[in-house]
Amino acid sequence: MNTSEFLTIAGAIVPDRPAIVFDDQTITFEGLAERVNRLANGLSEIGVGPGDRVATMQVNTNQCIEIYFAAAQLDAIYVPINFRAKTEELAQMLEIAQPTVLLIGERYLPLVPEGSRSSEGIILLDGKPTDSQRSYDDLLAQSSPDQMHFPEAGDEDTTVIMFTAGTTGVPKGVMLTHDSFASYLLATVEPADPDIEESNLITVPFYHIAGLQAALAAVYGGRTLVVMRQFEAAEWMDLVQKYRADRAMLVPTMLKHVMDHPDFSGHDLSSLSVITYGAAPMPLEVIRQAIENFPGARFINAFGQTETASTITMLPPEDHHLEGTPEEIETKLKRLTSIGKPLDDVDVDIVDEEGKSVPVGETGEIVARGSRMMAGYWQEETATRDTLRGGWIYTGDLGYTDQDGYIYLSGRAKDFIKRGGEMISPEEVEQVLRSHPELNDAAVIGVPDIEWGEEVRAVVVGNADHVNEELIIEYCRDRLAGFKRPRSVVFVDELPRNVMGKVLKRDLREEFGYPVENRD
Known about the structure:
The structure is a single chain. The protein is of the alpha/beta class and 520 residues long. The protein has three domains: 4-230, 3-Layer(aba) Sandwich (Rossmann fold), CATH 3.40.50.12780; 318-412, Roll (Luciferase, domain 3); 416-512, GMP Synthetase, Chain A, domain 3. It is built from 15 helices and 27 strands. The chain has a nine-stranded mixed sheet, with helices on both faces. β12, α9 and β13 form a beta-alpha-beta unit. The protein is globular.
């Protein structure tokens, strides 16, 4: 199914329903379809056609969704770019994707390399354009509202190139097909229904797979999409209350910021019926607090990555109900630290270095296969072969299963620490550190050591003046095997995280990766 049909279907069923609410402005499904037609017609006039890349760099706006559907209508390829990218990173992505046109927010225009600033290839999404620049609004105003282009791309044709960080520091363009989105949404979302109205508050950026999938799900499902530029706890609560949002997705750090906000109890958030979380490990104490603070909401832990076109495993709402006997509650608390079980439309396995399935309880690499996996990396045959093997996506995430089939993360393969031949899971050590009452956050990295090869270093955020390295190491002594215990502790004001809440381990290794002996 071509993804452009999502909007066609919803527009035919609920044309007058609000499709997008942004900055207190409402666009109906019929209005969204008209804006998409205008944009597609305008882009076609300036030379965009099948297979061309249409790049965009902007915080979340209604324009991001319009650009995606306009590109799909033209059988072009949508390339969302991280608005936090620096000049060098942006240059790399533009060099890789070679877009025909770049639609960009005014504040990001100075980041575009001089050689890429041809006025013919840049459309300004906001601000005042110069005489030589095109304006997004002007392009729409000057174009026909009628659909003049009808897509012919099939299920296996690429519709999105989404960049993900490469192990070498060079971003890789993940090729996602129409089926990458359609097969997932058709299996998990009911189509638009004139008798069912829902709203979905979006805080996840559209350049991230979770944000784009959520946007397309909302359009296909006829849901009203309430769009936030970027997450801010007070504004998030205001929007939930004002628009009576039914659904929301939050990464763990966002959820914690909401609950820790001094005005949390002053907001009516009772409309939320589904809260999805994921993208980063969820501390047990945070999800337990959330279950108490949002008694009317069903919680879903969704795990996946760009290469798998979002969710491949899920911990469903019933596993968040902390009821039953003490033994049953203890089991459910354990499962809250898992990523759940595989979805029906994907196969998931855990394998050793030879690609063979490992026994229950043994750590290996999580692999997945299914029709919606990525087609490969754009113009990266070697990287594609390394990740796509025998039809399986090798995720780079390590984990193990319990006897009931629940999957537990052990960390990233590249983040594992090898001390004296023993493999140490950073996730395990971090869980212990986060349970310390005087630590707000913690991450673990491996640092060089002459005797053991690597040693464990904890990078932590404390919440008390008296907490020190010795106390932290002693706390771990009774809770971890000797070889897993941190040998050094670094205190920081906050951990570096990306917009999805994942700790940037590479940044920590660059700053704090010196050997244990060197404390300077």
